Amino acid sequence: MDKTFHSKSASLWGDAWRRLKKNRPAVAGLVVIIVLIIVAVMAPVISPADPIKTDLPNRLKPPGAPSAICKNGVYILGSDEFGRDILSRVIYGTRISLSVGIISQAIVTVIGVTMGALAGYYGGMMDMLVMRTADILFAFPELLFYIGVMFALGPSIYNIFIALALIGWAGVARLVRSQVLYLREMEYVEAARAQGFSDARIILRHILPNCMGPIIVSVTMGIPGAILSEATLSFLGLGVQPPTPSWGNMIYAARGYMLTNPWYSVWPGVAIMITVFSFNLLGDGLRDALDPRLKR
Amino acid sequence: MSSQNIIEVQGLVKWYPVKAGVFQKVVGYVKAVDDVSFNIKRGETLGLVGESGCGKTTTARCMLRLIEPTKGRILFNGRDIMKFNREELRKIRPRMQVIFQDPYSSLNPRLTVKEIIGEALAFHGIARGKELEERVKELLEMVGLAPHHMRRFPHEFSGGQRQRIGITRALATNPDLVVCDEPVSALDVSIQSQILNLLEDLQARLGVSYLFIAHGLNVVKHVSHRVGVMYLGKLVEITESDEIYKNPLHPYTQALISAIPVPDPKVRRQKILLEGDVPSPFNPPEGCRFWTRCRYAMDVCRREEPGLIECAPGHMVACHLYGR
Question: A187 — contact with chain B (CB < 8 Å)?
Fold first, then answer.
């Protein structure tokens, strides 16, 4: 009897994982994301051609046309205006999109959690300073802000991280602050203070672990937003610069051939859609799984 | 005399400023605790009773400087902790602990029982490693839990068991003083007496002093050596536990005593019913704070605030009916 009790003693994470597994759309999203990550890591191995290798006689070929540069001899998804293999370019584009999504969210989360925790825990001037800054950032039209930053810093993938992080941390800070404000009043936090623990220990060990759920959800939900922003900036010519393939700059290049070769723009569009959709499904699932109020 | 006291509280005041308007001008104060003095001897339990919002909890929190008091002197082991800086305060915290009311929100759900109990021992360098584990085991056994419970999480325990874990956490660092903030109010009646008995046993064994907060006199009666009664931020009466039941002097205490249910249907007792509500601590009545609801209210009560005077040995009361 004691033994069964022990196996049930799984932590809250185990509990959340069990609930997530029951959520089919979320699991589907997770599987697709894992596949995308594998594709991104293995890009050089699985792509049929070098994504920047041109073959000018074979420009704008439809899907299935014979190819000289592809290992398998066929443009599976067609070729672009320089005769490059679209499939290979979409595959390499995964690297850009996923790294922008994940790295920018990592930066946003670190800054946002730190700011939110300090504002919520200390209150007063600290809170005032952090939250008014966040309010100002919220007031900017996001895209205009990105465009401004990219103009100022010059187009490159690193500057995309900076642009996204500059404005993105405010949302996380607001979320974390509200959680900290609530958790700070819990009796176990007061107990920790009564035991004479340092503020750092109270924040890191007693407050933040208890708001991991909302933070994880916000990260997961923030990734598709970042991917879309990168695509938008690249589409506007302010993000990843050609010939490096990114889904955004591919759609930009394809827009001139919309009537003659519609497939060209569809593939990167579908890639963006699948990625964003998968992250959203996973995010929804995580929110349900990590919400203690939904515990059955 | 003072070496006998583990803590002496003198003239403790906590006023919360009330701000209004665009410029956050201070328009007044909520007088949550207003000039409260008492002391607790070594190994003694002082009960503190009063209705919700009368400042019992604020008094206790201020006494431990978990809330910064507005004014007052707090002598803990003869040293004025009001003069302590953050670091000194941190060092003395293990010697004065708290047991909380709600066993559900008082334990961090992400930590195991061992971590909850052992954290203070490790943080203050009292014990670590194997020694810490032994100490946790010993403490768990002392409060009637099993050593193997230390690997579990709080959500695997019942309310009563959780309260035992909370008690263990408070006692882990061998404190001199423990504030019990309504430790049984959230528990079933059958569990209440178990926890009260446990607290008494632990006091006999460890010689710890308690400040025991409750909103009804019946619980306090069980465990306290002396009892203080609070009304609207003031201490109105304080004396030996037996004395307060046999001979309550303050009209408010009399009303509280008459509200204790008697488990005998044949006993007919006259209940003193208090009329009206507790006045707001933002705008308390002039003079004695109780006169608006007091059946003996006199002219002098409206004008002058009665001081706490000793009208029998060890029996202090703040009322104009006595001592003139």
Answer: yes
